[in-house]
Amino acid sequence: MARRPRNATERPTKQQILAYIEEAPGRVGKREIARAFHLHGSDRIWLKEILRELESDGLLERKRGRRVSAAGRLPEVTLVRVDHIDEDGEVIAIPASWPEEDAPPPPKIYLTQGGRRRMAPGIGERVLARLRYASDGTYEGSPIRVLGPGERSLLGIFERDDRGAGRLVPADRRHKHPYTVDQEHEGGAEPGEYVVAESIPGGGRHQRARILDRIGSSDNPRSITLVAIHTHGLPVEFPASALEQAERAAPVALGDREDLRSLPLVTIDGADASDFDDAVFASPDDAPDNSGGWRIVVAIADVAWYVRHGDPLDLAARGRGNSAYFPDRVVPMLPEKLSNDLCSLRPGVDRACLAADMRISREGRLLSHVFRRGLMRSAARLTYEQVQNARDGSPDDKTKSLMALVIEPLFGAYEALARARDKRGTLDLDLPERQVVLNEEGWVDKILPRPRYDSHRLIEEYMIAANVAAAEALQAKQAPVMYRIHEPPALGDVETLRESLSTLGFKLARAGALRPTHFADILNRAAHTDKLQIVSDLILRAQSKAVYGPGDSGHFGLALRRYCHFTSPIRRYADLLVHRTLIREFGLGEGALPTEADDAFTAIGEQISSTERRAVAAEREALDRFTSAFLADRIGSIFSGRISGVTRFGLFIRLEETGADGFVPVRTLPWDRYHYDETHHCLEGENSGLRFSLGQTVTAELLEAEPRTGSLVFQLADIDDITNDRARKSRQRRTPKRHGRRRR
Questions:
Q1: Which value, to the nearest 10 degrees, does the dihedral of the CA atoms of residues 460, 465, 471, 476 take?
Q2: Residue 287 falls inside a structural domain
Q3: What domain range is 108 assigned to?
Q4: Mind listing the pLDDT tens digit for each residue in 347-398?
Q5: Span 4-61, pLDDT tens digits
Q6: Are 609 and 644 members of one domain?
Q7: Rounded distance, CA 183 to CA 167, Å?
Q8: What CATH number corresponds to the domain at position 96?
Q9: 606 lies in a domain?
Q10: 448: exposed, middle or buried (C-beta count within 10 Å: 0-12, 13-18, 19+)?
């Protein structure tokens, strides 16, 4: 850094001053410059004039607090937006506000992840960062706060009031009041359209907004998913370079691959599945040292052949992290040319694959595994229902011919894997899922509990076995692994769970280290009661979130010491990384992971964990909006449900019919002063003795169903059914208090 010697008498040149300002790591003002060049007295007056000249020449900019910086330099604290993850795993951001026309490209900002609180912003998220200028024109940014897709970003329905003035009704239920939209800020929006807007600061008492984009009519069911996509910032369009690369892709020839086409591998998926990335086969193991054991082959689409490290498809896939699934569409991780065509294991078509060839004992213990890069040809595309019906003695024309050779051995090996699972004591939360069935117009026709068959569990166990084999194989090679990590629940969450379970009559053990078997015991006791669902929900809420990363912390829920994801590279980037590493470590040909990419695993793990959370939130929100739209014409209807949560503001209930969640505000409860008992998770009336507690069965009347926000509001329908002996006795012995405010 340019400085004046202490004994120097010459004043610094303008170039020396500019060089010092550019190289200075922190805040720079006249005082810092004077100290650096040992300027005193009249020299400081001279320095002031020089700084003024540099500013008038456009070489210097004045900042707040008497600070200066080189012209064009970003402020020390700047709002940035995460643009992409480069091939080295670096998180690259750009200024959140940058002119689009007649301006140079925005500077690169390399976001660090240091510090105690490691922040993992996803692509598109805004980050308040402290910047440090680098000599090559880039910046290093230390995140101060992750703000999400944009705090000023709004999404809602454009309307006109009685006077014809525009207004925006937010879709986010946290925004209680509409925004005024001036005519010049309407952006051509029509009343009843979903729009993306930004708030305009300085509006005084009246909030104002500017419309940026039109999504679609609120009367169009396709808008429901688009709203969820926009809300959570899911990337929809692929870069042109990625699409061009996908279009150039061609089917793979046998070449040096192993020919697995004679193996009767089959895919088993849901009836609505469009991409098939896994196929399975099982047969009795003929090895004399494994009597009663099985050979299992799990063949996975060879995505690594088509998507190479650092190419446009790879960068696009890494930015998305995973596919997102909605009732009416899929937002894929890869373009359809790959996800639904070349990488999809369609029946009767040659497809490139990476296969885990495993041997297990009769008790389901994994004995050995070999990974083969081959060419396969699926013998059949089967659904869970087909396979289950065949297992139950009602095969159709397709499954009848596959019973002896394919289906029966698949179930035989599954039973061995299931015994191993039971022995190690996994956390088996068999929670019901909602299945939204749409009509031809795209609206919800019905909402059903998604059926759960042994055929589902069969595929799950095969995938788990292959995932474990991949983790073991790479760990043995001391290679980097993108593990699927599930930590034990935090102590605070366990204590909260223990209190909640006690209110339902279940005791969670305190002694020793917590293991999945402790939760399994609770679930077994609740299995034949009407409290199973609520107990399962409570246990699920107490669990830590599973994440991706290179640290081998094991998987608590599955009771496994090592675990990674290998079986879905079409829809998960983590699986693609595991494929590339296997290819490298076992010398399986092209598409291997470069060794220089190993150091990026931590950053990539944090990033794809973030995109996974983003996709889950978007899927859940879309499901809630579809459910609200479905129930919107049933206002006043009575539903059976169960209290799934208690707050001081009211009750959360879950409907038995649809599995939908709604809210009962405390103001709708019988007139009383209600006390919230956090320990016992209940609301209790001070005068009536009415008690509303976790897990309680209720009937509720639907008051509001708002597709705009995805919310459902209820009131309890029959209070007499809720009133218990305690309440009756309480009413007899208590007299209303004259003091204090009563709540409705």
A1: 180
A2: yes
A3: 77-148
A4: 999 999 999 999 999 999 999 999 999 999 999 999 999 999 999 999 999 9
A5: 444 455 788 877 777 776 666 556 677 777 777 888 777 877 887 877 776 666 666 6
A6: no
A7: 10
A8: 2.40.50.140
A9: yes
A10: middle
H/E stretch holding 633 reads: none
Question: Mind listing the pLDDT tens digit for each residue in 682-700?
Answer: 898 888 888 898 888 899 9
Contact 1, 20 (CB under 8 A): yes
Calculate ∠ Cα 338-461-360, nearest 5°: 110
Residue type, 103: A
Q: What's the CA gap between 624 and 271, in Å, rounded? A: 23
Are both 720 and 590 inside the same structural domain? no
Give the pLDDT confidence of 402-450 residue by residue, as tens digits.
Answer: 999 999 999 999 999 999 999 998 988 767 788 889 988 888 898 888 8
In degrees and rounded to multiples of 5, residue 652 shows phi and psi of: -95, 135
Give the CB-side neighbour count of residue 682, counting CA atoms within 13 A: 16
Task: Say how many C-beta atoms besides its own lie within 10 A of residue 741's C-beta.
Answer: 5
**Is 229 domain-assigned?**
no
How many domains is the chain built from? 5
| The most confident of 64-78, 113-127, 130-144, by mean pLDDT | 130-144
Sheet holding 380-383, edge to edge: 258-259, 366-377, 350-360, 294-301, 278-284, 266-269, 380-383
Q: Of 552, 527, 550, nearest to 598 (Cα)? A: 550
111 CB-near residues (< 8 Å, 6+ apart): 80, 82, 91, 92, 93, 121, 127, 129, 141, 142, 143
Beta strands in 290-365 (DSSP E): 294-301, 324-326, 329-331, 350-360
Cβ atoms of residues 730 and 688 within 8 Å? yes
Q: Are residues 355 and 409 both part of a single domain? A: yes
Classify residue 363: in a domain, yes or no: yes
Judgement on whether residues 372 and 425 belong to the same structural domain of the protein: yes
Under 8 Å CB-to-CB from 364, ≥6 apart: which residues?
416, 417, 418, 419, 420, 421, 423
pLDDT digits (tens, 9 = 90+) for 123-175: 667 788 888 777 677 888 888 877 765 555 678 899 998 888 899 888 876 67
